[in-house]
Amino acid sequence: MPVEILDLHSLSNDGIPNLDMSKQIMDGLSRPIGQKNIPTMLLYDEQGLRLYDDITTAVPEYYLFGAEEEILKNRADEIIGTMHRHGQSGDLRETDEVVLELGAGALRKTSHILLGLCRFAEREKLSSPITYYALDLEKRELERTLGEIENSEIGARLSGKVTTKGMCGTYDDGLKFVQDGGLLHSGSESSGPSLPQGQASSISRLTEALVRESSPIPSDGSSSSEGEAFASTDSESGGTSYSPPSSPIDGEPESLSATQRALHIMFLGSSIGNFPREGAASFLRSLPLRAGMGDTLLLGLDHDNAKEKIEEAYNDKKGYTRRFIMNGLRSAGRTLGDENLFDEKNWEYVNKYNEDERRHEAYFKSKCSQVITEPTSNAQFEIIENELLKIEESIKYSDTDAYTLFTNANLRPIERWTDSRGQYSLWLLERPPFMFPLLRSPSLVGNGEKSNFKLLNLPAFSIPSRQDWEELWDAWDFITRRMIPSSMLHEKPIDLRHICLFYFGHIPTFLDIHLSKLLKEPHTDPDVFKYIFERGIDPDVDDPNQCHPHSEVPAQAEDWPSLDSILTFQGRVRTRLMKLYDDIDSGVVPLTRKVCRVLFMTLEHEAMHAETLLYMLIQRAGTGTIPPSGFTVPHWKSLATAWNEAPVPDNDTVVLGPETITLGHDDPEDQDLQHSGDDALNHEYGWDNEGPKRVVEVEKFRISWRPVTNGEFYSFYTGEGKGKVECPASWFQEGGAMKVRTLYGPVSMDVAHDWPVITSYDSLSTYAQVNGGRLPTEPELRLFYDKFEAGYEGGANVGFRNWHPVPSTTGLIKANGRGTNGGVWEWTSTVFDKTEGFVSSVLYPGYSADFFDGKHQVVLGGSYTTIPRITERRTFRNWYQRNYPYAWVGGRIVYDA
């Protein structure tokens, strides 16, 4: 039976698509000395694919292929299992599914994924087969490789479970076909809504270098040895099976119907490395992945390995790579009309790795001065001796590069698999319902186009932009409308805070009060809300009757305002805020520091309350709180395997100091009306306790590379510390076993063993003292963060990257110690109190001063749900009562050196 191939373009020039390649070649030859190039795609004609196949089978120095194949062979079932853990309510057995591989090539590595899909289809008893499409430029290669699969033992195993088909075309051709809804009708009687029209509209003509393999498919049926091992349920991996007790406020999230196809895109071989960094982000952003709908991207990325290793990988001693590259000259000549146009004896292959840019570069080097004459137009191109002609570049990715790429592409990492030598990674990614951009990235809207609003690309800690608000509102609405069932609105997940409904009203009321003061305008109706919702509570843990001034709230459920009235009020206040931005843009409202401060303060206030609400809700996870729908449910067993295999520091501690550091910044609120325009825009705003700037001497000390973990604290809690510390509120006793709370429900201690423990200052201080140390001072922890914290750009677990902590990564030699703490705030031994020169805020006088009671400790950093604007501002200080058990705070040990 012939292989089904969708021809998405017309082919010419011996298999090279007609993309006006001749013009691209001549344009590249016309460039000045030092800038000449020819298209990378020329390497991948039919002969080039065979030569590349030789590299992947006969060149051990080319580690990329082997490393990726190792991951796929050993982890295919984990990868497939994680792909299918999206929290949708639809019946998976009735859902059509498509797997699309970009630049598929020979499918040797892909065969492991195909067999994994086959095993998955068998386990899930799918009613219709999964459809796999291989997208590639070469129709004959697609026919050959897909035919080999169909006629092999693998093909027999796939029968009825996975259908293999081909797409012949460029990346653009294939993605446009998907975006236009072609997969909904091709080869299937199913029909359904097409993908969002805007998502692929910005696909650039970034079709260079379809890096792919063309090696034969093994006929031995080799597959992942893991088999059924990773087909586990939550209960098997220590989690708690969860059924929502009632519907979220906004109704059930959209689920995949029987006529919609889940789309899983694979882009392997580190092919994204052939794109410039900005182009890579644009390309990934353009992929037609639906936010929150279970679509995924499996992406291969080569690491920033040693210079010698990379250069040898692309220039092996036996000359396989040289033959592959030199074939590009014959391909270029053939495209221009004369295969011998570029005399091979006049050229040599050279390569180099640019360590600063983390980029490998491949060139033809002219051995002599020569003139290339294009046969059709007789255009002449002079090449001088030793001039370089670039044919290919391959970008390598550090962890910071990778997280920067994903964030700029609006993608969230679900899970990562790395080969045994730590050279290469496969990342599974999704388009989340919401996410926060890097602070220094250009603000983008919708399909990646820049907005025209004036108040947009501002300094990181200046006035928030409209987009900052919209991103925060997406998060706030997600939490309040999709995670809190109506049955919990009048409940208190923890006794020391108000009922859930209070926070729905508090956030817009706080904003409205400050807008009214700023603009000298009446409050938004209903006016009575300001008496109920102005300020929440943070009572004394030991004596809850002792509390700062706060709003008086109704005592009975029936006396509270209705949810509908609160949400209507919220909408009016948000509209009012956006009108203020319109008035600033038009000049109706002068932009002063006071205006900026009100906007900064109200935005961060909302962000902090989102975190407060979540650490309340986690206490009811599994018994009320609805897990975060639209984000792929963690594959706990797979993640635990990766965490257990992760490298650890050679030493537990590092010695720092003595050193002088600066804390705080100067941000005098009493000068706000004296500064306007650019001066107001370029100012860094903070809360009153962040100032003034002060210089502190830090003595020599020794500090733990990583925070105390659940596993370490559990051993202490059940051993030497028994009776000395309380059971953390982040733990949960179930069936005689201690588990750790997550917003998906409790997970086993084995899964969360290496996460930072979340517990009170008192408990961690006791742990530290018994172990011969103490908790760090604020200056000590700040010095450690300044030297070793990678930040949001470097992959820190903040800003909803995950909905749970992860193990810390600091202390590794390869990254010079830089890493992340796992996604928790950290306790310091510094009491929260006035600093010299402290002045209370005029806008919010009690923000800090109400808690200068000697009972609160300074905490630094941020949790997995703290927004980057807060975690990245080094002057930000948070605080909690030292015996408060609910906040997401951990800690590390310091020893006097």
List the helices and strands and how they pair.
Elements: E1 5-7, E2 11-12, E3 16-17, H1 21-29, H2 46-58, H3 63-83, E4 97-102, H4 110-124, E5 130-136, H5 139-150, H6 153-158, E6 162-168, H7 171-179, E7 262-267, H8 277-286, E8 296-302, H9 307-313, H10 320-336, E9 347-354, E10 359-366, E11 370-373, E12 380-383, E13 388-395, H11 399-408, E14 412-418, E15 424-430, E16 444-445, E17 449-450, H12 466-482, H13 500-519, H14 529-533, H15 563-586, H16 593-617, H17 636-645, E18 653-656, E19 659-663, H18 678-681, E20 694-698, E21 701-704, H19 710-718, E22 731-734, E23 737-740, E24 747-748, H20 761-770, H21 778-788, E25 825-831, H22 846-849, E26 856-861, H23 868-871, E27 878-881, E28 889-890, E29 894-896
Helix pairs in contact: 2-10, 3-4, 12-16, 13-15, 13-16
Give a nutshell description of this structure:
The protein is of the alpha+beta class and about 900 residues long. The chain has 23 helices and 29 strands.
List keywords for this structure.
globular; 16% strand; 897 residues; 23 helices; alpha+beta
Q: How many E-type strands?
A: 29
What is the mean pLDDT? 88
Determine the strand fraction and express it as a percent band.
Answer: 15-25%
* Poorly predicted sequence stretches spanning 5 or more consecutive residues: 10-18, 187-245, 255-259, 441-453
Query: Largest beta sheet: what is the strand line-up?
Result: 1-6-5-4-7-8-15-14
- Using the alpha-carbon principal axes, give the shape: globular
